[in-house]
Amino acid sequence: MNGFLILYSIPLNLINFSGGFLAHEVKYVTQTIEKIMIEWSKNGRKNFTIKVPDSHKIKEFELLLKQMLNHYQVPVRATVQQIPIEIKCGCGYTGKARISDPENAIRILCPSCNKKKGRIIVGKEIEVI
Ligand SMILES: [Zn+2]
Predict the structure, then answer these.
(1) How far is the CA of 96 from the centre of ligand 1 (A)?
(2) How much distance in Å is there from the Cα of 85 to the middle of ligand 1?
(3) 99: left (phi over 0), alpha (psi -120 to 50) or beta
(4) How far, in Å, CA of 2 to CA of 72, rounded?
(5) In the Cβ-directed half-sphere of 72, how many Cα atoms lie within 13 Å?
(6) 99 C-alpha to center of ligand 1: Å?
(7) In DSSP terms, which residues pair with 53 in a beta bridge?
(8) How far is the CA of 84 from the centre of ligand 1 (A)?
(9) Which residues sit with Cβ closer than 5 angstroms to ligand 1, an ion?
(10) I need a surface site. Which of 23, 66, 91, 101 has the fewest CB within 10 A?
(11) How many CB atoms neighbour CB 79 within 10 A?
């Protein structure tokens, strides 16, 4: 089990090599890799699909995931899939959310009333399957 602890010390060069923009997804990538490591060490699974809600910076997530798996020499194949977030809003709208400004602070908006008060019903978190 001690092997998992190393995941908490993320090599700085992975975070900083591109001006720090990857830092946003580091926490999520770390959590995802932990789940992968547990499955892999338990029953030798080698193929994983990671469903990432579109509130994440998908390219950064994928890049960082591949680099970290490589860094820790985990011999698995992880396929990253982007999934749309769906919300149920107070205005009566239910369905796909509008994700605004993925370059900066990502906001999950209701496409009907344009407000941020929808409850997420699909895509609340990253899934490892
Ligand atoms: Zn609404």
Answers:
(1) 11
(2) 14
(3) beta
(4) 14
(5) 23
(6) 13
(7) 83
(8) 17
(9) 89, 91, 93, 110, 112-113
(10) 101
(11) 10
Kindly give the distance from the C-alpha atom of residue 111 to the centroid of ligand 1, in angstroms, as a whole number.
Answer: 7
Q: State the amino acid at position 96 in one-letter form.
A: K
- Residue 120 token pair: 């997420």
What's the pTM? Answer: 0.78
For 81-101, letters b (16+ CB in 10 Å) and e give eebebbbbbeeebeeebebee
Which residues lie closer than 8 Å to 7 by C-beta, 6 or more apart?
A: 30, 33, 34, 37, 72
What tokens were used for 71? 């860094």
Residue recorded with tokens 């995931």? 65
Instruction: Give the pLDDT confidence of 58-94 residue by residue, as tens digits.
Output: 888 999 999 999 988 888 999 999 999 999 999 999 9
Between CA 117 and CA 90 the distance in angstroms is 7
Map out the domains of the chain with their CATH numbers.
2-128 (3.30.2320)
